[in-house]
Amino acid sequence: MPKMNPALRGRFNHDLTSIAPSNIRTFDAEVSSIKGIVKLTLGEPDFNVPTALKNAAIQAIEGNDSHYTPSVGTAVLREAIAHFLSDRYDLTYDPATEIAVTVGATEAIFASFEALLNPGDKVIIPTPTFPLYETVVQMLGATPVLVDTSATDFVLTPALLEETLVKEGPVKALLLNYPSNPTGVTYDATQLQDLAAVIEPTDLFVIADEIYSELIYSGHHASIATYLPGQTLVLNGASKSHAMTGYRIGFVAGPAELMKVVSMVHSMLVTSPSNPAMAAAVPAFGSEEGRQATLTMKQAYQERRDFMLQALSQAGFKVASPNGAFYLFAKLPTKFGQDDEAFATALAKEGAVAVIPGSFFGPGGEGYLRLSYATSMDNLKLAASRIQDFVASH
């Protein structure tokens, strides 16, 4: 096996030197080898891809749909996405110029930030949140401004946003992820309108990662693009709503002038998404079968959420109000203090349940655990029993 020439050391991209591997993936890998462990770690739906979607992919393969498509995705998929956004959220986008299909929401995040950021630009990121946003901003030589929302029920309030803008001076963009990974907390229409009132007079870009928008348990998801259409990029995809994580289909929607730049970056990153995956996503976003499949999954997630809420409460945890996604963000019982990583490590080794330390999600996550309930009820019942026993025995 070749060894790198020692003279090349230190000649890598300097913006990567401060970036460590994902704590979430690293911790998950470390505890996965424990015999009999129940994993509530990753945001991976446990459902199979709905049959109509699989059949669409098979038909594309058998029909020899194997050639280059437009970089922004097939016209029929962009039309389905436009229908999805209009039908669910009253958002109107031109599929020809205002929508780009990406290789998952992860590529959508990178392409959007790459299109907007110059070295030294500042991006406001409310925390706790998925660590990828901070990492991408750092990779691009920009500066993440992490705003702890734990004192405001894990919601960025207008007052907190105004305070941050005054304190930080010129800021290029605001990242909003809701329903939230890791808290499951989301924003209602009034909260978004109040934030929009602060943002509208500014030249802030808003990147709204709404990948969990279809998994709202009470009420309906509202997009901040409703109130700030000229300043917002909406990110979404099929991974969470249709259990299509391996198909890697995401999208970005926004004003045509802005999407021209995002689409250019996207085309240089990946050329275009996979044809069979795009074919499967057409009925996901554009058919009644796709909609009903999501509703079936959502009902199961809600039952699991309610079960785990009660089980954790009985064990002495306090849980953030999770009205979306499939995570619970649980405050450690008082007797365990704030060391969430030590608790999660001990729970894995002694209690055979794997969860993610809340501190991995940035300021405000200390003393919490993130538990994913995207697994079977049998697994959740076993995990709940083990967690309750572990807490009682310490």
Automatic annotation (TrEMBL):
Q: Name one GO molecular function term.
A: pyridoxal phosphate binding
Name the GO terms of the biological process aspect.
amino acid metabolic process
Keyword terms of this UniProt record:
Aminotransferase, Pyridoxal phosphate, Transferase
Q: Which cofactor does it need?
A: pyridoxal 5'-phosphate
Sequence ranges assigned to domain Aminotransferase class I/classII large in this UniProt record: 36-387
| Signal peptide as annotated in the record | none
Entry superkingdom? Bacteria
Which EC number(s) does the record attach to this protein?
A: 2.6.1.-
InterPro entries documented for this protein: Aminotransferase_I/II_large (IPR004839), AspAT/PAT-like (IPR050596), NHTrfase_class1_PyrdxlP-BS (IPR004838), PyrdxlP-dep_Trfase (IPR015424), PyrdxlP-dep_Trfase_major (IPR015421)
Any Pfam family matching the protein: Aminotran_1_2
Q: Does the keyword Oxidoreductase apply?
A: no
Q: Which family does it belong to?
A: Belongs to the class-I pyridoxal-phosphate-dependent aminotransferase family.
Quote the protein name from its UniProt record. Answer: Aminotransferase
Q: Which organism is it from?
A: Limosilactobacillus fermentum
